Amino acid sequence: MLRAALFFTLLSPALLLVWQLLTHRLGANPVEALTHETGKWALICLLVSLSHTPLKNLFNWKKVMRYRRMTGLYAYFYVCLHFCIYWVFDQSLSLAYVWDDILDRPYITLGFCAWLLLTPLAITSTKNMRRRLGHRWLSLHKLIYVIGILAIAHYIWLIRADYAEVVIYTLWLALVLGHRLYLFALKDPIRH
Amino acid sequence: MPPSRPRFPLIPKHPQYGYSEHQVTDENLYLSRRKFMSTGMYAGAAALAGYLPQWAHAKTTPWQAKITSAPRTKEHKEALTRLGDVTTYNNFYELGTAKTDPADRASALSTDPWHIVVEGECAKPGKFTLEDILKPHAFEERIYKLRCVEAWSMIIPWTGFPLADLLKRFEPTSDAKYVAFETLYDKSRPLPGQRRSTISWPYREGLRIDEAMNPLTFMAVGLYGKELPNQNGAPIRLVVPWKYGFKSIKSIVKIRFSKTEPKTSWNMIAPNEYGFYSNVNPEVSHPRWSQKRERRIGEFFKAPTEMFNGYAADVAHMYKNMDLKKLY
Q: With an 8 Å Cβ cutoff, is A156 touching chain B?
């Protein structure tokens, strides 16, 4: 029940965007709106997935861990949409344009790296893969800390004047990563 | 009304475009009703009273007739951007940083009365009313392409007069090498976007005197045959079509002739990204946007960007001895 509710909650931003696109509610520059919104929801899903461990540890809410994989995969889903919109409408489906952009613009480089690094995590998210990789699965999935930092840096770097919104996401990331650092400093075995 | 481009080529037209002009609610009525519904209802009698004078004057100023009858003197090869897109997708940080903020908060900007201070290296400085500024000029309509540094562009019919004609009235001296402009900023009564220091207020821009005197450089008071809406820089703004949009300063309150290159807002924020010249140049990249291509507002895919935004024939001579990769 909770799982289904979460599934549709996380899907709803995408459905809303499709509806807004078809009814001309995305403003004068719909491509820009789609790019910004999918990027924002990718980041939010990523931050939510990183919040599972602190929630479990601080509130002893063990069941929350059951939903971590779904939010993580939603982050990947929104990143893929984000990239596809950029690839199709900003770069006219040209890989050469995309490559030039990756080389020219540091924030594109960071965003692209975050997407690349997230791909093996999405692929190895199944129970079967987790069993096969054993303890290496945990080490691999610690990449999500790096991806979180890359994603925030990607966002900060593209802003030209108004940092109001990104401050919230940055604080959120600082809290969820800070929690892990704190446990690490206490030499507590970090429980995932 | 000139024909406007269809919204999206792939998706059927929105049915509202099927209506003819006389069936459409007057824009002022529509906007004032929206303002009443969104603000008036909640803000109470005091706030409501604050908006009443704006309804009363309802934009029937003496120069509306002059704007309507202005002859078109410059065409453009591409279709016009929809009026609704031109008035709802704006960068005007005085009213907020989101593209829709300027239209949503347009009523916060009061344009009546309006004064422009002229100072610096000229024989006839002073403080002028908008009426003083506009009266001697015959208006014309020009269709220009506006290219934003954010890699989008619009095709817009502006009504106004050449900046050169205005500047000559103040008799600039031989020391007037540059012209600086400012947008309004009242510390005691800031506009909604000015309560935060996203940029250092007031907004400043400037041109070299030969750029200011170029026949293309235009002072606009009208858009699509009507007075400029507040979000587009009412009551009077600059339009410099071969430069990125931010050079075309909105809602001008000050003009200063100076010996030295004036400080300009975006250059002050990030000098490595925004030069004083900011000519549209597909060869000079920006850290956030490749300038090689641009998206026409109303289209999904991008089109190639032209040197000097397509106005090279009229302006390239002003930069012939300059390295535009360094002096971007």
A: no
Determine which of B290, B292, B293, B295 to mutate to test the interface with A (most A C-beta atoms within 10 Å). Answer: B290
Tokens 């600082």 -> residue = A174
- Does A158 reach chain B within 8 Å, measured CB to CB? yes
> What value of ipTM does the predicted structure carry?
0.88
**Side-by-side strand order, sheet with B115-120:** B126-129, B115-120, B252-258, B178-183, B204-208
Which contacts (CB < 8 Å, 24+ apart) does range B22-25 have?
none
- Judged against a pLDDT cut of 90, whether residue B3 lies above it is answered with no
| Whole-structure pTM value | 0.84
Which of A24, A107, A164 lies closest to B288 in CB terms? A107
Task: Give the confidence band of A186 by pLDDT, cuts at 50, 70, 90.
Answer: confident
- Tell whether A160 lies on the interface with B, counting CB pairs under 8 A: yes
Q: Which of B288, B296, B297, B299 to mutate to test the interface with A (most CBs of A within 10 A)?
A: B288
For A102-116, the three-class secondary structure string (H helix, E strand, C coil) is HHHCHHHHHHHHHHH
Nearest by CB to residue B97, choosing from A27, A104, A161, is A161
| Close Cβ partners of B92 (under 8 Å, ≥ 6 residues apart) | B101, B102, B193, B231, B232, B233, B250
Is residue B228 very low, low, confident or very high in pLDDT (cuts 50, 70, 90)? Answer: very high
Please return the burial class of A87, using the count of CB atoms within 10 Å of its CB with bins 0-12, 13-18 and 19+: middle
What's the N-to-C CA distance of chain A in angstroms? 24
| Residue in B14, B199, B288 closest to A24 by CB | B14
**Is any Cβ of chain B less than 8 angstroms from the Cβ of A87?**
no
Q: How far apart are CA A176 and CA A170, in angstroms?
A: 10
